[in-house]
């Protein structure tokens, strides 16, 4: 590949609205360009990186025995009504109408579609177990798209779905996928942790999230230094018996606020409210209630519909809330249905966070904190640590709290979808049984951003080698001036390629300063300079992106170094 014939568009400017390093660098390196909120074009350069991630994911899925298919991104309403999710999914579901005024959604996930496929194509236990996967565009109307492709509205996901005759089979497939995820993130050279995750509103028996560790992460995870134990902080808290208690008297009072001030509600909940509190979510045994506030006032008119164990209320959907308030989608901040709201807040943490959605109430397990990026270092979340140590005091290790970026999620779904959609297969005895299902997601496009969060410096991106758009850049000083220099660069280019390396030839004719700055910004792991001077001395100048000085190496040494 010749850079003169490739479209590279870098920029020195730091985009004003980009809050985190990966977002800034992806824009500066010209990997992505924003079209509208949460919608991005992947440039030719960006796409090379995205495809590399995709390739690793695909290889490991296939190695784990999953088979690829491709489902439509537009999905009919009727299917979603079978599982009740047309209403329940909330504001993230983008609903669209065709010319006949039939309703569809743009798929945020594909449990319904895959179950529809499975019920049409799978009839016997002999066809199980089977795991299907696809790598495909999803759309979620995120209430607060941000950080570029990290939390976009349209994004690329690998989603896989397993079908098994029984629970033991489902657990085995789950483990196979879990192991594949470990291989994927290891191959991509990311520092990550698999954490136990709350199964949330979906229910089901087991779930793990894979988090890339980064200070900019939106999740808080607790892990032990002594063992492999790690949990999403929300889960550590959920394990407390209090979390499962019946609604308390206090709770009932919160359910019927009449123009209560923030302070009233704070007193009821027993938490100091930060100035910026806008929403309080109270979670009971089987669901939770959202109390919304605008300014100082609790908005009591919100219809919170019925949930067992919570009197006459259920969580209002984002859509209901937004409709009711007639507000901008950003009003609520990142309050999402059930699962997303579950990071557990401690009183003090609640007071420190920039956006609080809940706190502890006696007898209640509560929703949580959207981690403000100014949240102080782990020490100041000592109480969260205590919570986790309640949970895990016995392994002799220390519990650390870190922030993570959720890049993958595996889930034992059980029979919920198959049951709702009437999907059965015949077992060995010829009896119709409902198969057990698992689902497994990876944020392919999010991984690109997450990798940059972990790998960058002042000069730009430092790609983990398996993700780099090219492994080697051959930079030509003053191309088309001296035929010997051009010929030497071409020859080296050919030689490196036949050694199996992915090489780009920078023949754009930029001055060395700007040329090297570009190559560093876009994060190419190895740089080789071909110049008249080097040629005269019989050497090439080599430099690794990860640091170290540049060295003048003869051809043989260079090939060994890169090989
Ligand atoms: P989050 O908690 O970050 O909102 P999620 O739990 O809603 O993610 P899943 O339903 O588990 O997401 O989807 C599988 C994967 O898709 C996630 O682990 C994440 O890597 C990725 N993903 C989810 N939402 C987005 C988004 N808005 N932009 C980019 N990637 C996303
Ligand atoms: Mg999540
Ligand atoms: Mg989400
Ligand atoms: Mg998830």
Automatic annotation (TrEMBL):
Name the record gives this protein: Proline--tRNA ligase
Oligomeric and partner information: Homodimer.
PROSITE patterns registered for this protein in UniProt: AA_TRNA_LIGASE_II (PS50862)
Localization annotation: Cytoplasm
Its EC number(s): 6.1.1.15
Highest taxon of source: Bacteria
Function: Catalyzes the attachment of proline to tRNA(Pro) in a two-step reaction: proline is first activated by ATP to form Pro-AMP and then transferred to the acceptor end of tRNA(Pro). As ProRS can inadvertently accommodate and process non-cognate amino acids such as alanine and cysteine, to avoid such errors it has two additional distinct editing activities against alanine. One activity is designated as 'pretransfer' editing and involves the tRNA(Pro)-independent hydrolysis of activated Ala-AMP.
InterPro entries hit by this protein: aa-tRNA-synt_IIb, aa-tRNA-synth_II, aa-tRNA-synth_II/BPL/LPL, Anticodon-bd, Anticodon-bd_dom_sf, Pro-tRNA-ligase_IIa, Pro-tRNA-synth_IIa_bac-type, Pro-tRNA-Synthase_IIa_type1
Domain (Aminoacyl-transfer RNA synthetases class-II family profile) ranges: 38-464
Gene for this chain: proS
GO terms for biological process, alphabetical: prolyl-tRNA aminoacylation
GO CC terms of this entry: cytosol
Keywords in alphabetical order: Aminoacyl-tRNA synthetase, ATP-binding, Cytoplasm, Ligase, Nucleotide-binding, Protein biosynthesis
Pfam families hit by this protein: HGTP_anticodon, tRNA-synt_2b, tRNA_edit
Reactions catalysed: tRNA(Pro) + L-proline + ATP = L-prolyl-tRNA(Pro) + AMP + diphosphate
One function term, GO molecular function aspect: aminoacyl-tRNA deacylase activity
Main location: cytoplasm
Domain text: Consists of three domains: the N-terminal catalytic domain, the editing domain and the C-terminal anticodon-binding domain.
rRNA processing in keyword set: no
Record family assignment: Belongs to the class-II aminoacyl-tRNA synthetase family. ProS type 1 subfamily.
């Amino acid at each position: 590949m010749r850079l003169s014939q490739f479209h590279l568009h870098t920029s020195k400017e730091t985009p004003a609205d980009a809050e985190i390093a990966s977002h800034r660098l992806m824009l500066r390196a010209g990997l992505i360009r924003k079209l509208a909120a949460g919608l991005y074009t992947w440039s030719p350069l960006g796409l090379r990186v995205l495809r590399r991630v995709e390739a690793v994911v695909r290889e490991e899925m296939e190695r784990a025995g999953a088979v690829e298919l491709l489902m439509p991104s537009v999905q009919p309403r009727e299917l979603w009504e079978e599982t009740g999710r047309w209403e329940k999914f909330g504001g993230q579901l983008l609903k669209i109408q065709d010319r006949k005024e039939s309703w569809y959604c743009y798929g945020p996930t594909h449990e319904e579609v895959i179950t529809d496929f499975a019920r049409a194509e799978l009839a016997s236990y002999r066809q199980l177990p089977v795991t299907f996967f696809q790598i495909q565009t999803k759309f979620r109307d995120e209430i607060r798209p941000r950080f570029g492709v990290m939390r976009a509205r349209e994004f690329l996901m690998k989603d896989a779905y397993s079908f098994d005759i029984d629970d033991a089979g489902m657990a085995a497939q789950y483990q196979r996928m879990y192991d594949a995820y470990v291989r994927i993130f290891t191959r991509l050279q990311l520092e990550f942790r698999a954490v136990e995750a709350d199964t949330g509103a979906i229910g089901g028996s087991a779930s793990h999230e894979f988090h890339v560790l980064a200070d900019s992460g939106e999740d808080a995870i607790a892990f032990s230094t002594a063992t492999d134990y790690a949990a999403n902080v929300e889960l550590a808290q959920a394990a407390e018996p209090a979390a499962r208690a019946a609604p308390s008297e206090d709770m009932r009072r919160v359910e019927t606020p009449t123009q209560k001030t923030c302070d009233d509600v704070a007193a009821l909940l027993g938490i100091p409210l930060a100035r910026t509190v806008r929403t309080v979510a109270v979670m009971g045994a089987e669901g939770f209630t959202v109390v919304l506030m605008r300014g100082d006032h609790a908005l009591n008119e919100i219809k919170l519909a019925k949930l067992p164990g919570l009197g006459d209320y259920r969580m209002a959907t984002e859509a209901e809330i937004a409709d009711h308030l007639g507000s901008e989608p950003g009003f609520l901040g990142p309050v999402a249905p059930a699962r997303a709201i579950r990071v557990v807040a401690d009183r003090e943490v609640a007071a420190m966070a920039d956006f609080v959605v809940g706190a502890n109430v006696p007898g209640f397990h509560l929703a949580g904190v959207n981690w403000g990026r100014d949240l102080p270092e782990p020490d100041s979340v000592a109480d969260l640590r205590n919570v986790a140590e309640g949970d895990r005091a016995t392994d002799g290790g220390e519990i650390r709290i870190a922030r993570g970026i959720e890049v993958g999620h595996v889930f034992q779904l059980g029979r919920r979808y198959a049951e709702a959609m009437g999907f059965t297969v015949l077992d060995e005895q010829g009896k119709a049984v409902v198969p057990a299902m698992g689902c497994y997601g990876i944020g392919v496009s999010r991984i690109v951003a997450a990798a940059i969060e972990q790998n960058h410096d002042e000069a730009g991106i430092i790609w983990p080698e398996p993700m780099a758009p090219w492994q080697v850049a051959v930079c030509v000083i003053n191309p088309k001036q001296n035929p010997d220099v051009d010929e030497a660069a071409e020859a080296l280019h050919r030689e490196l390629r036949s050694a199996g390396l992915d090489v780009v030839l920078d023949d754009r004719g930029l001055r060395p300063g700007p040329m090297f700055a570009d190559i560093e910004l876009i994060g190419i792991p190895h740089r080789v300079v071909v110049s008249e001077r080097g040629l005269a001395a019989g050497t090439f100048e080599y430099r690794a992106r990860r640091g170290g000085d540049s060295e003048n190496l003869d051809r043989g040494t260079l090939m060994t170094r890169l090989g």
